[in-house]
Amino acid sequence: MTDDLIYARKNPDLIDTLLKRRSVPMRLMGDPGPSPTDLETILRAGARVPDHGKLFPWWFITFQDQAREDFGDVLADAWAKREPRVTHEKLEDERKRFTRVPLVIAVISRPRTSTIPVWEQILSSGAACQNMCLAANALGYGANWVTEWYAFDDNVRAALKLEAQDHVAGFIYIGTPLTGPEERPRPDLSKLVNNDWQNASARGDEYAKNGLGYAVNGFSLAGFKPE
Ligand SMILES: Cc1cc2nc3c(=O)[nH]c(=O)nc-3n(C[C@H](O)[C@H](O)[C@H](O)COP(=O)(O)O)c2cc1C
Asked: Is the CB of 149 under 6 A from ligand 1?
């Protein structure tokens, strides 16, 4: 099977995708979702990522059809617990979250007890998310990797039977683009790349100097404390 491996092969289409890729907001996606064959391809791409120690420290949950609505009830209940005075309209919006697209894949990071640093195991789950997004794009679907509030909500975590060390690395929303999204600002490489390694820490992160270096959105990962 070694002949089937790809480690260096000219692929201009892939470069084009990497340089022009764009997430598609949920409101711009609709039916159809991936066929069973396409879904399997997306999941296999997600499982084929750099993973120090061959630990497979992640797992995936697919939400399609009725499961999206059932999970919507979990989201609505969880939101009502956070906001007891929530309006009926807001609750119904929460209930409909997963029905915005035909397929949502949750990527769960579950670090193993290992000599491999937990941080590296978590990073691997991020690679799984991005591989799935790219695979979906290459099959003609739009994708959006989000966490939103419910990735961090204790009641939602309990419904997913997550353990203390688990994190939702992402909910990957996948569907057929109804229209193209607009471009968003992209970083200027000259502000990110520095070949002066001794001074790179002080000089390299130009964006931090503009006050954009650290975004706090009210959530924090377990065990992760912003300075
Ligand atoms: C771990 C992670 C979580 C994210 N969560 C959200 C989110 O909750 N809401 C959101 O609008 N974008 C979220 N994003 C950003 C989108 O995935 C997407 O990258 C962003 O909209 C920019 O679009 P682009 O992928 O075309 O650059 C998240 C990205 C990452 C890596």
From this structure: no
Query: Alpha helices of the chain — where are they, by DSSP H?
Result: 12-20, 36-47, 65-82, 88-95, 118-138, 154-159, 200-203, 206-209
Mean pLDDT of the chain: 91
Measured in angstroms, how far is the CA atom of residue 181 from the centroid of ligand 1?
Answer: 14
pLDDT category at 206 given cuts 50, 70, 90 is confident
Q: Residue with the nearest Cα to atom 2 of ligand 1?
A: 146
Q: What is each CA distance from 30 to 166, 179, 224, in whole angstroms?
A: 30, 10, 36
- pLDDT for res 191: 82
Model confidence over 36-51: pLDDT tens digits? 999 999 999 999 999 9
Q: What is the CATH number of domain 26-181?
A: 3.40.109.10
Is 155 touching ligand 1 by the criterion CB < 6 Å? Answer: no
The torsion region of residue 124 among left (phi > 0), alpha (psi -120 to 50) and beta comes to: alpha
Best probe residue, ligand 1, of 20, 98, 132, 146 (max atoms within 8 Å of C-beta): 146
Structure tokens at 152: 């961090």
CATH 3.40.109.10 residue ranges of the chain are: 26-181
In this predicted structure, what is the pLDDT of residue 116? 98
Residue 147 beta carbon below 6 angstroms from any ligand 1 atom: yes
